[in-house]
Amino acid sequence: MNEQKNLIMTVILAGLILFGFYYFYEKPKIDSAVRAQATAIHTPTAQVISQSAPVTLDRAAALKTEPRLSVEAPSVHGSICLKGGIIDDITLKHYHEKIDPSSAEIKILSPEKSADTYRILFAWHAHDPQTLTPNADTLWKVKSGDILTPDTPVTIYWENGHGLAFERTFKIDEKYLFTINHKVINKTDRSFQLTPYSNIERKGTPEIADFFILHEGPIGVFNGKLEELSYKKLREKHHMEMPSQGGWIGITDKYWLTALIPSSHQQFVGHFKTINTNQKDVYTAELVYAPVEVQAQQTVEVSEHAFTGVKQVNVLDAYAAAYNIPRFDLAIDFGWFYFLTKPIFSFLNLLHNWLGNFGLSILLLTVLIKLILFPLANKSYRSMAKMKQLQPELAKLKERYGDDRVKMNEAMMELYRKFQINPLAGCLPMVMQIPVFFALYKVLFVTIEMRHAPFFGWIQDLSAPDPTTVFNLFGLIPWDPPSYLMFGLWPIIMGLTMFVQQKLNPQPTDAVQAKVFMFMPIFFTIILARFSAGLVIYWAWNNLLSMGQQVLIMRMEAKNPNKLAVNSNRVKPKWKK
User: SS3 helix, strand, coil % of the chain, rounded to 5?
Assistant: First the structure.
């Protein structure tokens, strides 16, 4: 019994520590991020980063400072800056900052001189320093095309005045993938050695959730291995270099990704860098190819892809298959339970295609999980039913032995052996549910498909906490309580189901343990109140299903003519001798 009590107290203490860590450390960071969202090859990065004066304009004004080519596709719109031939203006058509579809669209890339510059640059480095090559300040001219669409590519060109001509052709698909073809035309009688490279440049450290289960920042796959680097870690290291054959490199946010993808199996060197210019950190994810020899009167071409858009699982998987991009789905932080998290998401998505509602998909998934665990749960509930029948005898043991824990434990074990009861069997269904719980939590937290996904009634975003609270009578009183008083209806339903479920279980004979168990529903209600509504709905529904199964088992046991008998004439454990 002492071991049991110590275990319970340890679990509660660990829960309190996790709650304190979340509530006083992680939650303020998350709230801050949400508020911010609502309102060996030479790598010439320094050549690409503009050295212009630190002039900050609003985004609309910054877009007007340079000539541009428009981008118009089914999923995105924006423009390409002809100064530098840079992709620096991309806005998502179907994603908004708030649930309200009239709210501002999500802007991913932003131009130079705006508050948060974020752009994709392409360039060539000449091994002969006397050879002029295009960089971030080069003014390109339009050769063909007026607007970039999936049906109409655009080509820009620039000549260095010494016999070298450069062309850059942009294509875009129906989603978020650019294909960029770089061409060098040598009109001279000599050869040139050039190194093509491209990079993603982000000025300023963005507001992030800074949550330990979510990666935001530099990311890439090199030689089949995922590399993730936080902004803080990159500032400490300043530079990381990773040669690779095939892979990709980029910078990720929670839901959005900007990445550079070389042609399949192409060799490159990936670089993560940071410098501080004009008192602002500049982060660079760079892709440098092997040098190419451009012979006299010849043309050399290099192709690559750039992704800038939404981290939709099906979209990333489709690109990975079509362009042989290794482990591209790992741009979504599925975490340690990847082997469980992604299948759960895929199955939820399949159910959603059938039911049309992710909330209903979660409910049906819970039923299916219960069916899979049905034999194990039945065994557990039968054991608990027997233990509940033993409650009078356990009470007599407590009365007989009082504080003599050793003798009382011996008598209890003898009683359990007599009736073939495993006192830990009741924990098995909960233990089996823990990986599913964390995997579902990950799915709700990191997948864009769950963002702003409605259920029914007041739940319009399964990835966000229940927006109601008991402290304004669930909206009847015109008052917006502070965040720490947000205890919505679904968390309360979950707490009530947990309370009723506890009443169905055998009650602890120890008074302290009984009080602790009585407190657990309140404790979990407080903890889960700020979790995703979808997770709370799953937990409450799972409790209801467990209660129904448990009541059914208990009734079957009560009707069994060979049920457990606990009267003193038939049960004579050692302690009665």
Answer: 40, 25, 35
- Is residue 278 in some structural domain? yes
Q: Are 309 and 108 in contact (CB under 8 A)?
A: yes
Q: At a CB cut-off of 8 Å and minimum separation 6, what does 142 contact? A: 69, 82, 154, 155, 156
- 16 part of a folded domain: no
How many CB atoms lie under 10 A from the CB of residue 430? 11
Q: Tell whether 402 and 517 lie within a shared domain.
A: yes
Q: 51: helix, coil or strand?
A: coil
> Exposed, middle or buried by CB within 10 Å (0-12, 13-18, 19+), for 568?
exposed
Average pLDDT of the segment spanning 12-21: 50
The C-alpha atoms of residue 440 and residue 365 are separated, in whole angstroms, by 10
Q: Are residues 195 and 157 in the same domain?
A: yes
| Structural domain contains residue 288 | yes
Same-domain status, 294 and 356: no
Quick one: 395 and 265 in the same domain? no
CA distances from 284 to 62, 205, 274, 287, 333 (A): 21, 12, 6, 10, 21
**CATH code where residue 243 lies:** 2.70.98.90
Q: Tell me the backbone φ, ψ of residue 68, rounded to 5 degrees.
A: -140, 160
Strands 217-222 and 225-228: antiparallel
Contact of 499 with 543, CB cutoff 8 Å: no
pLDDT given for residue 477 in this prediction: 84
Please state the pTM of the whole predicted model.
Answer: 0.81
pLDDT exceeds cutoff 70 at 441: yes
Residues 190, 118 share a domain: yes
DSSP letter string, 143-203: EE-SEE-SS--EEEEEE-SSSEEEEEEEEE-SSSEEEEEEEEEE-SSS-EEEEEEEEEEEE
pLDDT at 481 (0 to 100): 83
Are 292 and 356 members of one domain? Answer: no
CA-CA distances (angstroms) from residue 64 to 57, 89, 104, 135, 157? 10, 11, 20, 20, 21
> Do residues 255 and 365 share a domain?
no
Residue 507: what pLDDT? Answer: 66
Q: Which of the residue ranges 11-25, 107-121, 223-237, 528-542 would you say has the lowest mean pLDDT?
A: 11-25
Distance CA 289, CA 343 (A): 36
List the beta bridge partners of residue 83. 139
pLDDT digits (tens, 9 = 90+) for 179-209: 999 999 999 999 999 999 999 999 999 988 7
Structural domain range at position 84: 60-331
Same domain, 310 and 355: no
User: What is the total residue count of the chain?
Assistant: 577
Inside any domain, residue 7: no
569, pLDDT greater than 90 = no
pLDDT score at 264: 79
Residues 122 and 183: their CA atoms lie apart, in Å, by 12
Q: Which of 163, 155, 160 is nearest to 181 (CA)?
A: 155
CA 53 to CA 392: how far, in whole Å? 83
Residue 471 structure tokens: 């402290």
**Beta strands 86-96 and 105-109, pairing class:** antiparallel
Is the pLDDT at 58 greater than 70? The verdict is yes
> How far is residue 194's CA from residue 300's CA, in Å, rounded to a whole number?
10
pLDDT score of 20: 55
What's the structural domain count of the chain?
A: 2
